[in-house]
């Protein structure tokens, strides 16, 4: 059965089950477009005000740890529909004249060639991308700090590469017992051993390609080093997740745990906040663990700690900008499922262990969801059951579900793009956009000359063929013009996609999940 959605007069979504014809590709859409639940304009305004207030709180310099991504924050935009991926950047651009950026990367991630999953590039390559992006937007990137350094040859080579490019680069060393050995950390053998990062602006933004890079440790080390030099400096944390004033088990916060399952981050009630104020606030284990270090540092620098809890360190106004909680809850639940499928496919490729999958499975139970709650999953699997072929499904912005199956000519992803663009363009499903006589020579080239085993066309090959036909066929031109409407849509495939198909969907802005089944 396929789950359809309809709305009653009050606008409430009701689900109903309907049988569909064996090869049906068109479904009844919802009556309205994609829903939003987050006020981005309000967020930019009040978050900016809050950061400026925090800067005024300290004297000569503020180190602002930037959690998450400064731009391309696609996780936030998925779980908070309405959040713009570059919102943080727009806020901080107002302070670009008085700020500089330090980019942090872990020597461990360099050595492991860790990949940023949303972009498909390694962290060391992303440092250079981030530097270029920041500078193109008017920011000053003053240096790169390589953390967790312990003599790794790969880190030495990377530092040499950066310095050849004119980038000032510093080492921060692994400290035994971090973050619990406070007496060692707050000493000349701890933070005192690190390179002192030279800065010149009153606001220093500390960011990284991804989590676990050691941004907070860099900030705290700099507080120690600045104090030695007679410079009064402060620290604050600008992080979107977990959202401190949402419940611990709110789906938006659970989605953050799913996103960081490889780091084993755990959302927790902040015990320091509860002790100081008697109220509940949500934080995560690493911030809570490091708080005694920060407390000790501030005691040494100021004689007192201006923060009573790790939650106090943050400048996070996200929770005040959610205006439709149901929309954000549903989006977050879909994100948890998406992360689960990603982990399953990573496990199938040998890129993670069972622990990551098991943790996200547990988080799904906490959120009260299963894979069946992702509409495209149900539709793709039913299509496969009905046809006996690997299948895929896409949910369009208006709620329409389109399905497709593999055939001797096309893979399921390529067929899905054809079916979806035809639907959006109002082209009858029976209309053939690409003639078989055009597909067959491409297949012969793939198998006979390029020695490929799979003759079916992938998404890139179908789009090239459509482009060629569009000069002579009005329907092909119409179908191609619909591609921008796929941005933000969701897809599920019953088979793991090829690298080519994954990249095409990513470029189109489509969110994809796959069953952990061997690629075609």
- Read across the widest sheet, the strand sequence of neighbours is 8-7-4-9-3-10
Q: Give the overall form.
A: elongated
Query: Any low-confidence stretches, pLDDT <50, length ≥5?
Result: 1-32
Q: Please bin the fraction of helical residues.
A: 40-55%
Task: Provide the descriptors you would attach to this structure in a database record.
16 strands; 20 helices; single chain; 520 residues; 4-stranded mixed β-sheet; disordered N terminus; alpha/beta; 6-stranded parallel β-sheet
Give me the secondary-structure topology:
Blueprint: E1 2-7, E2 13-18, H1 40-57, E3 61-66, H2 74-79, H3 87-93, E4 99-106, H4 107-112, E5 115-116, E6 121-122, H5 123-136, E7 141-149, H6 153-164, E8 169-173, H7 182-185, E9 203-207, H8 215-228, E10 233-238, H9 251-259, E11 267-269, H10 271-277, E12 282-284, H11 285-302, H12 310-313, H13 325-348, H14 354-367, H15 375-387, E13 391-395, E14 401-405, H16 412-425, H17 436-449, H18 459-469, H19 474-481, E15 490-493, H20 499-508, E16 511-514
Parallel strand pairs: 3-9, 3-10, 4-7, 4-9, 7-8, 15-16
Antiparallel strand pairs: 1-2, 5-6, 11-12, 13-14, 13-15
Helix pairs in contact: 1-3, 8-11, 9-13, 9-14, 13-14, 16-18, 16-19, 18-19
Polypeptide structure, described:
The structure is a single chain. The protein has helices spanning 40-57, 74-79, 87-93, 107-112, 123-136, 153-164, 182-185, 215-228, 251-259, 271-277, 285-302, 310-313, 325-348, 354-367, 375-387, 412-425, 436-449, 459-469, 474-481, 499-508; strands at residues 2-7, 13-18, 61-66, 99-106, 115-116, 121-122, 141-149, 169-173, 203-207, 233-238, 267-269, 282-284, 391-395, 401-405, 490-493, 511-514. It is α/β, with parallel strands linked by helices and 520 residues long. A 6-stranded parallel β-sheet has the order 8-7-4-9-3-10, with helices on both faces. Strand 5 and strand 6 form a beta hairpin. It is elongated and about 80 Å long. The two termini are 26 Å apart.
């Amino acid at each position: 059965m396929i789950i359809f959605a309809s709305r009653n007069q009050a606008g409430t979504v009701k689900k109903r089950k309907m049988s569909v014809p064996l090869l049906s590709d068109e479904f009844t859409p919802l009556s309205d477009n994609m829903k939003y639940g987050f006020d981005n304009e309000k967020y930019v305004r009040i978050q900016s005000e809050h950061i400026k207030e925090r800067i005024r709180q300290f004297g000569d310099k503020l180190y602002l740890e930037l959690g998450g991504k400064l731009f391309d924050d696609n996780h936030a935009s998925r779980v908070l529909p309405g959040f713009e991926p570059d919102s943080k950047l727009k806020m901080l651009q107002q302070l670009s004249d008085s700020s500089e950026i330090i980019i942090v990367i872990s020597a461990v991630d360099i050595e492991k060639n860790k990949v940023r999953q949303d972009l498909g590039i390694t962290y060391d390559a992303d440092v250079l991308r981030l530097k270029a992006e920041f500078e193109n937007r008017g920011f000053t990137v003053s240096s790169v700090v390589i953390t967790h350094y312990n003599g790794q040859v790969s880190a030495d080579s990377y530092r040499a590469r950066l310095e050849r490019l004119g980038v000032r680069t510093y080492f921060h060393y692994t400290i035994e017992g971090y973050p619990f050995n406070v007496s060692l950390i707050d000493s000349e053998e701890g933070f005192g051993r690190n390179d002192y990062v030279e800065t010149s602006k009153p606001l220093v933004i500390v960011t990284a390609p991804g989590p676990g890079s050691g941004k907070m440790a860099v900030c705290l080390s700099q507080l120690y080093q600045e104090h030695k030099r007679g410079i009064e400096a402060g620290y604050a944390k600008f992080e979107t997740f977990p959202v401190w004033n949402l419940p611990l088990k709110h789906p938006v916060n659970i989605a953050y745990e799913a996103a960081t399952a490889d780091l084993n981050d755990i959302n927790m009630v902040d015990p320091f906040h509860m002790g100081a104020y008697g109220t509940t606030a949500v934080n995560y284990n690493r911030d809570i663990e490091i708080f005694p270090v920060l407390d000790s540092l501030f005691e040494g620098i100021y004689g007192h700690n201006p923060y009573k809890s790790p939650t106090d360190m943050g400048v996070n106004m996200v929770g005040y900008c959610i205006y439709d909680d149901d929309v954000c809850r549903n989006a977050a639940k879909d994100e948890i499922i998406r992360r689960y499928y990603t982990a399953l496919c990573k496990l199938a490729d040998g890129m993670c262990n069972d622990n990551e999958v098991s943790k996200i499975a547990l988080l799904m139970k906490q959120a009260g969801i299963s894979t069946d709650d992702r509409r495209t999953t149900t539709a793709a699997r039913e299509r496969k059951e009905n046809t006996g072929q690997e299948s895929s499904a896409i949910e369009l912005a208006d709620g329409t579900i389109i399905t497709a199956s593999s055939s001797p000519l096309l893979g399921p992803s390529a067929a899905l793009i054809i079916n979806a663009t035809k639907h959006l363009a109002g082209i009858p499903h029976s209309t053939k956009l690409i003639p078989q006589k055009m597909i067959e020579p491409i297949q012969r080239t793939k198998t006979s000359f390029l020695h490929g085993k799979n003759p079916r066309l992938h998404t890139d090959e179908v789009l090239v063929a459509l482009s060629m036909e569009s000069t002579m066929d009005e329907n092909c031109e119409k179908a191609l013009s619909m591609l921008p409407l796929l941005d933000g849509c969701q897809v599920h495939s019953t088979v793991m996609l090829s690298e080519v198909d994954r990249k095409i969907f990513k470029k189109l802005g489509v969110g994809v999940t796959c069953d952990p089944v061997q690629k075609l």
